[in-house]
Specification:
Blueprint: E1 4-9, H1 12-26, E2 33-38, H2 71-79, H3 82-102, E3 107-113, H4 115-123, E4 128-132, E5 141-142, E6 145-146, H5 164-170, E7 175-179, H6 183-191, H7 221-227, E8 230-235, H8 242-261, E9 266-272, H9 282-286, E10 291-292, E11 327-331, E12 334-340, H10 343-349, E13 352-355, H11 359-366, E14 371-373, H12 383-393, E15 397-399, H13 406-414, H14 417-431, H15 436-452
Parallel strand pairs: 1-2, 1-3, 3-4, 4-7, 8-9, 8-13, 9-12, 13-14, 14-15
Antiparallel strand pairs: 5-6, 10-11, 11-12
Helix pairs in contact: 1-15, 8-13, 11-14
């Protein structure tokens, strides 16, 4: 009898992680029948699954899913029908579970996100597994112990970033497996008798970190470092209108970089979310003395902070089939390229990032590269969010107070090769190796088939 799985997720990033796991499940020798239920937003990511019906009502809320960062956003969602939607979703989940039981079907819940899908999974009465995307022990501690907190220490009162009621849900007999986002979190959950499996973070799937090499040592290392172009990824986030406000802040930081590093060849790579309008970014650049040039279709800058060129540094204009460049601007020796759907290529090419984003920042750091974050006005990327993210990512994320401090942070990084090596190792450790979705899918099927067949 074929296993049926209902996937619950609560957010755009969670939908992407769930999608990768579901795609891996569809390739499994005993591939289950899949249904989905995005609890936040409309779940557009799941349109990539050919046969995966949505079992209940979906609705985009005014907050976009960021209600935990701002009480005003929560009130907007309440007025927008959040309570009614949640009740309708709960009824749809119970109805699906009841229908499968009455038909004698083997079924289970895959919950991806935080306590909301986890709670719904438990309330369904079915076996379930949980992929925890929102929390990490790194929010509270690193391998050396508890961290100092700027915004309070209440989270550590129960001995784990996961609170007692969350741990209770994860320790129920019907919870067959828990997949935390990193090894440190898995280690702590295991201490509470929770079936935690450290299999990596699906956020890194499809992104290939480049191993570092001892390139800073040699008679011409300093000369090569001074001559080669530096590539900097620009990550303003994905949510309008916040991303446009973040872009103004980032452009201000870029201006500061040019004022102190204008003698270097600089390549800025704007990885712009597909739903944002590239043309809306142009006025800010033009007011900052950037000039658009004719269409350039391909661009590659060889070498990086950890991985300089094998021979001589490549010129900024060297061709490559990897990076499509819709809009190109120049200012002095610097070039800036803005493009949609290019995060993977931009992240691969860049030495470091100026970041005001959530998931994209974590993925970039997972490639072993440093990111510099500037707090914005929100609702997502606020000072509190940036501080939380800096604890999650450790030394890989350099948090500055304002755009003027970015140039100094970059200069400091360029002078400290040992620090860059530490950052690379830290990023790999905290975000894990690619291929997590397939590993989770295999483990999930083993746990559920063992129970149901």
């Amino acid at each position: 009898m074929r296993l049926k799985i209902l996937c619950l997720s609560n957010g755009h990033g969670e939908d992407i992680i769930a999608l990768r796991i579901l795609q891996a499940l569809q390739k499994h020798p005993h591939s289950p029948e899949i249904a989905v239920f995005p609890l936040v937003g409309e779940g557009q990511a799941f349109s990539q699954l050919a046969t995966a019906p949505t079992i209940g009502p979906v609705q985009r809320m005014p907050s976009g899913g960021f209600i935990y960062m701002d009480g005003r956003e929560f009130l907007r969602d309440i007025k927008g029908g959040l309570i009614q939607l949640t009740l309708a979703q709960f009824k749809a989940i119970r109805s699906w579970a009841r229908a499968q039981k009455e038909s004698g079907e083997d079924c289970a819940i895959l919950a991806v996100g935080d306590i909301v899908p986890l709670l719904f999974a438990w309330l369904s009465g079915l076996p379930y597994v949980f992929v925890g995307t929102a929390k990490s022990e790194y929010h509270l501690r690193d391998e050396n112990g508890l961290l100092r907190r700027k915004f309070g220490t209440w989270e550590s009162w129960s001995g784990s970033v996961y609170l007692p009621w969350e741990r209770w849900l994860m320790s129920r007999p019907r919870c067959r497996a828990v997949f935390p986002r990193d090894a440190l979190t898995a280690e702590f959950l295991e201490k509470f008798g929770i079936p935690a499996c450290n299999l990596g973070n699906p956020m890194m799937d499809g992104l290939s970190p480049t191993p570092s090499a001892p390139v800073f040592y040699g008679p011409d290392a300093e000369l090569r470092e001074q001559e080669r172009p530096i590539a900097i990824a620009l990550l303003p986030g994905s949510r309008a209108p916040e991303a446009y406000a973040n872009w103004q802040v980032i452009v201000g930081a870029v201006g500061g970089i040019l004022s102190v590093m204008g003698d270097r060849k600089l390549l800025f790579l704007g990885a712009i979310y597909s739903e944002l309008n590239l043309e809306a970014l142009r006025p800010v650049l033009e007011s900052s003395s950037w000039r658009q040039v004719g269409e350039i279709r391909e661009q590659r800058r060889e070498g990086s902070i950890l991985r300089p060129p094998v021979s001589s540094p490549a010129e900024i204009g060297q061709k490559s089939p990897n990076l499509l460049l819709p809009l190109t601007f120049v200012r002095g020796k610097a070039m800036m390229i803005l493009s949609h759907n290019s995060f993977k290529d931009c992240a691969s090419e860049a030495d470091l990032a100026i970041a005001m984003a959530g998931t994209a920042t974590e993925q970039f750091v997972g490639l072993g590269k440093p990111a510099i974050a500037i707090p914005g006005k929100g609702p997502q990327f606020t000072e509190a969010f940036a501080e939380t993210q800096s604890r999650l990512l450790g030394p890989s994320l350099i948090l500055v107070k304002n755009p003027a401090e970015v140039a100094g942070a970059i200069q400091s990084l360029l002078r400290e090769p040992d620090r860059l090596q530490l950052i690379a190792e830290n990023g790999f450790r905290r975000m894990g190796k690619p291929g997590a979705a397939a590993r989770i899918a295999d483990c999930l099927m083993q746990r559920l088939i063992k129970v149901n067949f």
